[in-house]
Specification:
Layout (H helix, E strand, L loop, with lengths): L1 E7 L6 H12 L5 E6 L12 H12 L5 E3 L10 H11 L4 E7 H6 L6 H7 L1 E5 L5 H7 L7 E3 L9 H9 L3 H4 L5 H9 L5
Parallel strand pairs: 1-2, 1-4, 2-3, 4-5, 5-6
Helix pairs in contact: 2-9
């Protein structure tokens, strides 16, 4: 089985995250996807609580049979290579893929043990405003483990969604967030 580890802050999770997962499954590039939200130990401004982000992911994916969630990174600072190794131990007979945007690949050489990620695991990279040919040249040594996948409408960012939420522009944001997630955000006064 090919399992995609889809990490991120998911602050908040939005329809683009869901669309990426669906497209990778529909195209049969992956058999299963595990969303792994980063913990609050990650130094990122405006990151709401682990539990709120996890609950929103649950609401967004509750009817999905091939998508699951993991709290593996909660409660500690975890590096990507450690997360991937964890899932490889958990699923020893499966291929573990790291699903990321080209923005992640662009800076991956600054990550701890990045060579291990690029050598020991497969990457599915979604282009996001980067020159992919120069980016792939940068990681030419690892090219056999990198698959670039062009997807439809993959430029929505959580930063923009948070701005709409802060401005209480709910008419606009409802196009980008699952309605159950939006209701949860409103009911809990998140992102205000």
């Amino acid at each position: 089985m090919r399992i995609g580890i889809f990490g991120g802050s998911f602050n908040p999770p939005h329809k683009m995250h869901e669309s990426i997962a669906h497209q990778l499954l529909e195209r049969k590039l992956l058999d299963r996807i595990i969303f792994v939200p980063t913990s609050n130990f990650y130094p990122k401004a405006g990151l709401i609580s682990d539990e709120n982000r996890f609950k929103m992911l649950e609401l967004m994916t509750e009817d999905e049979k091939k998508i699951s969630l993991s709290k593996y990174e909660f409660g500690r600072l975890t590096y990507t290579y450690e997360t991937l190794e964890h899932f490889q131990r958990e699923y020893p007979s499966d291929l573990i893929y790291f699903v990321c945007g080209s923005d992640n690949l662009n800076e991956m050489d600054t990550w701890r043990e990045y060579q291990k990620i690029l050598t020991d695991f497969k990457l599915i990279v979604i282009p996001r405003n980067h020159d992919m040919s120069s980016l792939l040249k940068k990681y030419e040594k690892y090219r056999q483990n990198i698959t670039v996948v062009e997807l439809d409408n993959n430029y929505l960012s959580s930063t923009n969604v948070r701005k709409y939420l802060k401005d209480k522009d709910y008419d606009l944001v409802k196009d980008y967030i699952d309605e159950k997630v939006l209701k949860y955000i409103q009911d809990n006064n998140l992102y205000e």
